[in-house]
Design goal:
Layout (H helix, E strand, L loop, with lengths): L1 E3 L16 E5 L15 H6 L1 H7 L3 E4 L3 E2 L11 E5 L6 H13 L3 E6 L9 H9 L11 E2 L22 E3 L5 E3 L14 H16 L4 E4 L31 H13 L6 E4 L6 H5 L9 E2 L2 H4 L5 H18 L4 E2 L9 H4 L8 E3 L2 E2 L7 H17 L3 E5 L20 H5 L47 H4 L6 H14 L8 E3 L7 E6 L3 E6 L5 E2 L5 E5 L7 E2 L3 E6 L1
Parallel strand pairs: 2-3, 2-16, 3-6, 6-10, 10-11, 11-12, 13-16
Antiparallel strand pairs: 1-17, 4-5, 7-9, 8-9, 14-15, 17-18, 18-19, 19-23, 20-22, 21-23
Helix pairs in contact: 5-6, 11-14
The structure holds 1-deoxynojirimycin.
């Protein structure tokens, strides 16, 4: 046996975010209250009892601010307004209060790397022209070449094409994402002051924290050097630069002024777990998404290595781990795990599937994976619909694709719409209760014709369903003193292909990733299993929680 994770088991008064299960609400696709085919705050409010019965601790809400929706809300025109598609600030306040009454915390997204090109600051910058103070809040530069017709450097946008767009007066502005998402210049004091004011605006309205979009991208090398000059191990000109931590130290101090353990979670894509740990020191952010885990294939050795590295590295800074399998940017894991082929992550966030998914296999593994992630030390994220076992919708017709990635990639990358299809609640046909019966529009992305078995209504009460497995797991997790924050001890007598670990007091999680049934280790009872355990043996691609 070997001890992993240096963090001592914290006292029971440990802050909520060290153990929380946070459910991700992709607002456009969760529940449509007003019948326009797009999810909204009214829809989430109507589903609070569902979320309560599921047993989650908090909701991460994707951007709900005023936005032209060029990147579905990640292009914010006004950080203090709710987009009319989703509701109003008054409704958001009501929602936060109602969620709190259900014991559910609210963690909205904040998008500090870029604004919308419709933000008042960017419009003013365009109107004011080159050399104006208004342009200094963004990253405007003259072009290269004799007539300035070449972009200022060789950076590409994450969505394809150059990261620069030229405006009418000849200057170029930087956008690491779509042209409608100009990057803010975090060297400018106005930018710091504005975001701190925005955080306060929402903290005062009761939010419990923020998910920080592109947390690793805010600070650019002021020289804006070409990427071509980047040497191996050199400091990247825009990703994960040390100076971002100054921003987060200030944000941490700000959050600490408010009661109730307000907290941040960073979307930070870093090269190593060491670099990730630098975001979550005690004077920095509280937690960060663990994308290494998300990008690990269904392989016992690889998963164990990632779990060990994560716990060891975060342990050195006393931060809890987070465990994430899916979100609105990646192929749903029931579809990823349904592919036996080797790893196909080509870059952060981009998963290129090899061959068709075996969904029966992917679903079995997704059940086992849920028990694995919910038993690991720290917090966990559940992306809406994963509790229903939803697969990726891989056959959306090209004519309905909306992700800017599709256009920007010159139609070579279909983008992320397949994991964003509105979720099914009830009924036999679309919109499966996503929109009210008198809706005036169809769901913004079409739902598959064969989703009736995936609805909440169809799965509720069916003990074999994914939904009831999640409900049961979250119930056990909430009640069992061993689960949540803490440490784990591997049972090293488990054979290759089997992950087995113990948590104190008296809890063992076993996951069989091998091709042979595995006789369960000694236990007093099976607390939960992906499928009924027969003759004390755990079938391949299954997991069980045991009491000792
Ligand atoms: C990460 C978000 O998760 C993604 O959906 C968005 O497109 C980019 N950041 C840009 O804001």
């Amino acid at each position: 046996m070997n001890e992993q994770g240096a963090t001592p088991v914290p006292p029971t008064t440990a802050p909520w975010w060290r153990s929380a299960v946070i459910y991700q609400v992709y607002i456009r696709s969760f529940a449509d209250g007003d019948g326009d085919g797009v999810g909204d705050i009214a829809g989430i409010r109507s589903r609070l009892p569902y979320l309560k019965s599921l047993g989650v601790d908090a909701l991460w809400i994707n951007p709900w601010y005023k936005s032209p929706q060029a990147d579905h809300g990640y292009d914010v025109a006004d950080y203090r307004e709710i987009d009319p598609l989703f509701g109003t600030v008054a409704e958001a306040e009501q929602f936060i209060e109602e969620a709190h009454a259900h014991g559910i915390r609210i963690v909205p997204d904040i998008v500090p790397n870029h604004s919308s090109d419709q933000h008042a600051w960017f419009r003013a910058a365009l109107a004011a022209g080159p050399g104006s103070p208004e342009r200094e809040r963004y990253i405007f530069r003259p072009g290269r070449g004799p007539d300035g017709s070449l972009p200022p450097n060789d950076w590409d946008s994450r969505f394809g094409g150059p990261a620069w767009t030229r405006v009418a007066d000849g200057e170029w502005y930087l956008h690491l994402f779509a042209p409608q998402q100009p990057d803010l210049d975090w060297q400018h004091p106005d930018v710091h002051a504005e975001f701190e004011a925005v955080l306060r605006f929402w903290f005062e309205r009761g939010v419990d924290g923020f998910r920080i979009d592109v947390a690793h991208g805010l600070v650019k090398d002021p020289e804006l050097p070409d990427l071509a000059g980047l040497t191996d191990g050199g400091v990247h000109p825009f990703w994960d630069r040390d100076q971002v931590h100054d921003i987060y130290r200030a944000w941490r101090r700000l959050a600490d002024e408010y009661p109730g353990d307000r907290s941040f979670v960073a979307e930070a894509w870093t090269d190593t777990p060491e670099r990730l740990a630098s975001y979550v020191r005690s004077d920095g952010l509280h937690t960060a998404f663990n994308f290494d885990f998300l990008m690990t294939d269904w392989d016992a050795k690889d998963l164990r290595a990632v779990i060990d590295d994560t716990l060891a590295m975060l342990g050195t800074v006393g931060a809890p781990a987070t465990w994430v399998m899916s979100n609105h940017d990646v192929m749903r894991h029931a579809s990823r795990y349904g592919r036996r082929a080797a790893k196909k992550w080509v870059a952060n966030e981009s998963y290129v599937p090899a061959g068709p998914a075996d969904l029966a296999l992917g679903t079995r593994r997704a059940r086992a994976a849920a028990l694995l992630t919910l038993a690991l030390p720290g917090g966990a994220y559940v992306y809406q619909g994963e509790e229903l076992g939803l697969p990726e919708v891989e056959d959306l017709p090209e004519s309905v694709l909306q992700d800017p990635v599709w256009e920007r990639s010159g139609h070579t990358d279909r983008g992320r719409d397949g994991c964003r299809v509105p979720i099914p609640w009830s009924g036999e046909t679309a919109p499966y209760g996503f929109s009210p019966a008198d809706a005036t529009a169809a769901p913004w992305l079409p739902q598959p014709a064969d989703w009736a078995p995936y609805t909440v209504a169809a799965q509720t009460g069916d003990e074999t369903s994914m939904l009831e497995l999640y409900r049961a797991a979250l119930r056990v997790r909430r009640d069992h003193p061993a689960l949540g924050d803490g440490t784990l001890t591997w049972l090293d007598d488990a054979p290759e292909g089997v992950l087995a670990f113990r948590r104190e007091p008296g809890f063992v999680c076993v996951v069989n990733l091998s091709t042979e049934p595995y006789p369960l280790p000694e236990h007093t009872s099976v607390l939960l299993a992906g499928e009924p355990v027969e003759n004390g043996r755990l079938a391949p691609d299954q997991a069980a929680w045991l009491a000792l």
